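Predict structure. Chain length: 345.
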Amino acid sequence: MRNRLADETSPYLQQHAGNPVDWYPWGEEALARARATDRPILLSVGYSACHWCHVMAHECFEDNDTAALMNRHFVNIKVDREERPDIDQIYQTAHQLLTRRAGGWPLTMFLTPEGKPFFGGTYFPKRSRYNLPGFDDLLRRVAEAWRAQREPLIAQGDALVRQLAETLPAPHDGDPGDMLASAAEQAGPRLRDAAMQSFDAVNGGFGGEASMFDALLRHAQATGDAAARDAVLLTLRRMPEALRVPLGFATLVAALAECHSLPALVVLTGPGAATSAWRAGLAGRYLPGSMVLQLPEHATGLPQVLAKPVGAGPQAWVCRGPQCLPPLADIESLLACLSRDEADA
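Prediction complete.
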């Protein structure tokens, strides 16, 4: 049986329409359900191209036992960050305030029935690994904490919302808890105004903010806003023109470099069986900021960054752009290096 996400326009939400999880899209129906049942909200934010979103979906949201825990104890809301960057911004900021760490996707937040965050994280495996708690155990612990320690959790949510009110534009005066619902209601007009203010009417684009483009496109489709539609169409027409001009292409590359951090490229060389074992070991670790490339033993004609000497045993070079660290000859040193990279990212 397909859930409520089957009727959504977001391709990412539709990918979860067949989950056994009783998903709601973000909206008053979900919030009213949480208030009526006095259950906390489990908010999951992701997007279609997010690798670890799909990993967590396969491990947890497609699993009947995990879904049963989610449905029993929580009202579950799924959000596409590309469709609702406003909701993503609010709860990413809440995650950073709660954990003192950068957020990311998938974003997993636990909220009071009023939408006030009291606990959160990003990716969680079904069972404990990567120094992360198992999601099933986490669900049970949060549900028990809500039952036995509700008042401290509500107080924490209230305090966090007050902090959010200081870091995000407040939509009105009054109870800061209303900010969350009000932000959702006013998101379309606010995002439209912000995008149009930064719109380049000659060359297209919205000041390098990709989420603005997607949000404006959805706003134009939903409301029939002709000015927003024309801004999107002009930007699309200008993209191929810019790629044909060296200066335009250079500007595009610079914009991408400014908006995205380069992953660590791990180049593996050596006998095939040994490097395959290293690669399998890396695949079992949560290293979202790393990309692994295993080179064939006798590869030729490689670009300079990949042209590494091949020794008798396996070796690994960790590179960012054209800069590579000295080779590592054992997988424990490699894992330690990548773990430091992830912590510093």
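Summary: Residues 226-244 form the longest helix (19 residues).
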